[in-house]
Design goal:
The complex is a heterodimer of chains A (251) and B (71). Chain A is mainly α. Chain A has 9 helices and no strands. In chain A, α1 (6-38) packs parallel to α4 (105-118) and α5 runs antiparallel to α6 (160-181). Chain B has one domain (19-70). In chain B, 87% of the residues lie in helices and 0% in strands. Chain B has helices spanning 2-16, 19-37, 43-70. In chain B, α2 runs antiparallel to α3 (43-70). Classes of the chains: A mainly alpha (251), B mainly alpha (71). Chain A binds chain B through residues 79-80, 82-84, 86-87, 89-91, 93-94, 97, 99-100, 133, 137, 140-141, 144-145, 148, 202, 205-206, 209-210, 213-218, 227, 230-231, 234-235, 238, 241-242, 247-248, 250-251, and chain B through 3, 6-7, 10-11, 14-18, 21-22, 25-26, 29, 32-33, 36-37, 43-44, 46-47, 50-51, 54-55, 57-59, 61-63, 65-67, 69-70.
């Protein structure tokens, strides 16, 4: 973290924390369904298996990135962040405008529980195996996005471990609250978080892509804040336009 | 095998959920790269084109998807 300013470290750690919060809440809903219906052993084993694979990915990919020339790394990660961040932001704007429904953790929990109850063989062992695999898949698939974000926002400036710590803090927070309330975390403002993370990832994407192409951003790291403000303003204006029916008229 | 397919599908979905949004983003980056590296456009102008191009691509993709969903 030598030479890293707080203006770059804070968005990187914040992006990793909030993106992880969203994904971990989604994974937690499925793990909770598994634990409630088929027992906590299967849920815990599946979850630990998923975490092990994700950790191995970060440990394996992290050091490899150090060998890539910095400008090429910034360009590749910047473009991937743009693809990922703009996609998240587009979906968050559509949800915010009521064009697509909000994520409903309670409904997902009910659907997952019904699916688990209906699935599985007649023997208890095969049901437990299936439940463990369901938890494993939930943690692995939701965690892949977290791994990408941790690597993307952390690799460019030696912030891999701070970003990973942000992601881990989100896991601990969701687990602590989840164990306390023992039901899906439906009151987490998931779309607002996705909106914010989409803005930060898109801002990072423009910043890294520009740096990779040799653009000397005025204000250097502070340019990130300006980009984020622009994405926020445009995102909110687009959501307001869609809510007022402007998208219909544009047709 | 089904799990590997799901992982690959998840990875592809992360970056290519909307093919036209992804295509437009990649085309914009390629255009800015050509203008900067081959035609020696002033760097700040290229950076501004990238930033405002991304905002335009985002708005267009969002409005297009809203129109499609509202039928």
């Amino acid at each position: 973290m030598v030479g890293v300013t707080w203006s770059v470290a804070a968005p990187a750690v914040g992006s990793a924390f909030f993106a992880s919060l969203v994904e971990v809440v989604e994974a937690f809903t499925i793990v909770l369904a598994v634990g409630t219906l088929r027992g906590w052993r299967a849920a815990a084993l599946g979850t630990l298996g998923g975490f092990a694979v994700l950790t191995a990915l970060v440990v394996a990919l992290g050091p490899l990135l150090d060998r890539v020339p910095l400008h090429l790394l910034q360009l590749v990660i910047g473009v991937l962040l743009l693809l990922f961040g703009l996609g998240w932001l587009r979906k968050a704007i559509l949800r915010s405008a009521g064009v697509i429904p909000l994520h409903d953790e309670t409904a997902i929990f009910a659907a997952e529980t019904a699916q688990l109850a209906a699935a599985g063989g007649p023997r208890r062992r095969s049901q437990t195996w299936l439940a463990g695999l369901t938890a494993f898949k939930a943690v692995l698939l939701e965690g892949l996005e977290v791994v990408f974000i941790v690597i993307a926002v952390g690799a460019g400036r030696g912030l891999l471990w701070p970003a990973a710590t942000g992601a881990l803090a989100a896991c601990v927070a969701v687990l602590a609250v989840g164990v306390a309330v023992h039901r899906p975390l439906a009151r987490v403002p998931e779309n607002a978080l996705k909106f914010g993370v989409g803005i930060m990832l898109s801002a990072f994407g423009v910043f890294w892509t520009g740096e990779g192409l040799g653009v000397p951003w005025p204000g250097q790291d502070l340019a990130l804040a300006v980009f984020a403000l622009l994405f926020l303003t445009v995102g909110l204006l687009t959501a307001v336009t869609l809510r007022s029916g402007g998208g219909e008229r544009a047709r | 095998m089904s799990l590997i397919r799901e992982v690959i599908g998840e990875l592809a979905g992360m970056f290519l959920a909307d093919a036209r949004l992804s295509g437009a983003t990649l085309a914009l980056v390629a255009l800015v790269a050509v203008l900067l590296l081959a035609l020696h456009l002033p760097a700040l102008l290229g950076g501004a084109l990238l930033l405002f191009g991304c905002l335009a691509v985002l708005v267009e993709a969002t409005l297009r998807e809203a129109r499609r969903r509202r039928g």
